[in-house]
Write a structure and sequence with these properties.
alpha+beta; Beta-lactamase; Lipocalin; 2 domains; 8-stranded antiparallel beta sheet; 8-stranded antiparallel barrel; 14 helices; 22 strands; about 30% helix; globular
Length: about 500
């Protein structure tokens, strides 16, 4: 049900209770996590907490796969999705620190032929711009095409020129996965080393992150990997791993809490790990410097700013800077959060995308660290989540109920068949199969959408994969002929509808 990040930075909670949380990790966490997993219906969770250069808590809970006994442990692999962005940004910032490039170099210097829709943006877009989400795209814009598709990394970057931005260049924040994909390709342009190898030799190996990988096949074949689950039809259902090798610099890392704890230790110790300076502290500081305003007037108590650095969301809470990022792939949502002034950090990995527990647990632990009055943040956040799920299910059920009445479309099914094209996505084909219309997607050949009539020229589309959802799909008819169809998918993948013109 959820694909990418949960953009809401910490939703911290307060109460009038005076119960001290000073011993929360030691005395309560082993009870708290399983109880809240049950509340959120999460199969598996892994957690690591770092304080003053040491791992003070690291544990797995639940199972890797529903119906099987294999337990989650500290070495269990999860897709960490957009947590990858901090690694990509740190690698690129290292190159800038070494003066092999500049963050303010034009992207076209490294990617020949690189263009955006707007000529001003094309001429001026810099590496910094694509690392801090300020190129004018709406959050997730064009991810209908980009995520889990069959196009090459180069072709996807070149396709960015077809995406008409929703905002002006550098005017506001819009979370853009393709910006980080492009940033990843700056690395081989500067070093003749692939993004994956650069991270391996400059981050994973120096930090003893021996379980961390960057390919889909690595998690698919791993014997200690969590299986992904999403919410569909009122229950958790298993889904395939996303295949995102082509866009890996924005979200392709697979890792475990044992490995990520080392990354956190390095982040909190000014770039040092096991007595060695893995990264100059200046590199880390540059990634944590604000570049784009995310929320002009954050309303969370104790918070005064909300910005994006380079691969990190930045905010303040009770006078402390919070450095964090969420990650969401199909069947996984994860979180990394740092409080550098407290030498404190946490990572939470989960194997269902239908939860906000990873955010709630990080908030709970930071409240504990900052000696805030106790309140069950998870229980508080679940209230809003459960309402959202109920609305989500209700909307789907309403569409299914309307289709079950079997209203007749305005035209014969054959009239809706044919080839359609959209300037961003490319082609889809609608065929009549066994008395139903089925959409086939040129860049997602394993995906389909089955159309059921809702009356007139509107249908409900039931997608496979289920992550794309159940959506009302209207056709445009002129002079008795179908001329276009508007396709949309779940907001967690892409907020925008896409109009496809009929060409055959």
């Amino acid at each position: 049900m959820k694909k990418l990040i949960v953009l809401s930075l910490f939703t911290f909670s307060f109460s009038l209770f005076t119960f001290s949380q000073s011993n929360f990790i030691k005395d309560s966490l082993d009870t708290y996590i399983p109880r809240e997993m049950k509340r959120w219906n999460i199969p598996g969770v892994a957690v690591a907490v770092v304080k003053d250069g040491k791992v003070v808590y690291m544990k797995g809970f639940g199972v890797r796969e529903i119906g099987k006994p294999d337990k989650v442990d500290e070495n269990t692999l999860f897709m960490i999705a957009s947590n990858t962005k901090a690694y990509t940004a740190t690698a690129v910032t290292l190159l800038a620190y070494q003066r092999r490039m500049s963050l303010d170099d034009k992207v076209s210097k490294f990617i020949p032929g690189y263009k955006l829709y707007d000529s001003l943006a094309s001429a001026n877009v810099t590496v910094r711009d694509i690392l801090c989400h300020r190129i004018g795209f709406l959050t997730f814009q064009s991810d209908f095409l980009n995520w889990d598709c069959n196009m090459s990394r180069k072709d996807l970057m070149m396709n960015m020129r077809t995406v008409k931005p929703m905002y002006g260049f550098r005017t506001r924040f819009g979370y853009c996965n393709m910006g980080f994909v492009t940033a990843g390709e700056v690395i081989p342009a500067v070093t003749d080393t692939s993004w994956a190898d650069f991270l391996k030799y400059h981050i994973f190996m120096p930090l003893n992150m021996s379980r961390t990988t960057t390919r889909n096949i690595d998690i698919v074949n791993d014997k200690n990997a969590a299986k992904p689950y999403t919410w569909y039809g009122g229950k958790l259902v298993p889904i395939p791993y996303d295949s995102v090798d082509n866009i890996a610099p924005c979200g392709g890392i697979n890792s475990c809490v044992k490995d990520i704890a080392n990354w956190i230790i390095m982040q909190l110790d000014s770039g040092r790990f096991n007595g060695k300076q893995v990264f100059p502290f200046e590199v880390l500081k540059r990634t944590r410097a604000s570049n784009t305003i995310v929320t002009p007037y954050p309303e969370a108590p104790g918070t005064h700013f909300s910005t994006y650095g380079l691969g990190w969301f930045l905010t303040d809470y009770m006078g402390k800077r919070i450095v964090e990022h969420d990650g969401g792939a199909s069947g996984f949502v994860t979180k990394t959060a740092l409080v550098p002034e407290e030498h404190f950090g946490v990572v939470v990995l989960t194997n269902t995308d239908a939860n906000g527990f990873m955010d709630a647990l990080a908030s709970q632990l930071i409240d504990d660290q900052l000696h805030q009055p106790y309140k069950n943040v998870s229980a508080e956040q679940y209230k809003g989540f459960s309402q959202y799920i109920a609305q989500f299910d209700s909307a789907d059920n309403a569409l299914w109920a309307a289709a079950a009445k079997k209203p007749k479309p305005a035209l014969e099914l054959k009239a809706y068949t044919g080839t359609y094209i959209n300037e961003v996505y490319g082609k889809i084909e609608i065929k009549e199969e066994k008395g139903k219309l089925v959409i086939h997607f040129s860049h997602h050949p394993h995906f389909t959408g089955v159309l059921e009539p809702l009356g007139e020229n509107t249908f409900v589309c039931n997608y496979n994969p289920v992550l794309w959802g159940v959506k009302e799909t209207p056709f445009k008819v002129q002079d008795g002929k179908v001329v276009a169809v508007t396709v949309s998918i779940n907001n967690e993948v892409d907020y925008l509808p896409y109009t496809f013109k009929k060409i055959e």
